[in-house]
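We treat protein structure as text, and this decision shapes the records that our systems exchange. The tokens are whole numbers drawn from a learned vocabulary of local backbone shapes. One such record is reproduced below, unchanged from the form in which we store it:
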Amino acid sequence: MWGNSEDVAAYIAAVTKTQEGTLQLLKSLVARSVSHQLGDAVVQSVIHEEKDIETLIPMDDLEKAVQAISTANVNEEDEAAIKHPEGC
């Protein structure tokens, strides 16, 4: 149990002060699902809506944190998460 919304906001603000924390948050907001259709597997990414994310962190703050990420040494999963913040 988190307690109150201020506790959650403080935690998210602390997490997004680092590149690693911001990537961790972004990846947690993108869910992958696999469905099968006549033998073919289809992988889809489901991204949370902006209004849902706003309960955790203001979108302006998240966008600033994402823009501060250096993409020089990120893996494919990180890169996919970075590409989707505006669609969250």
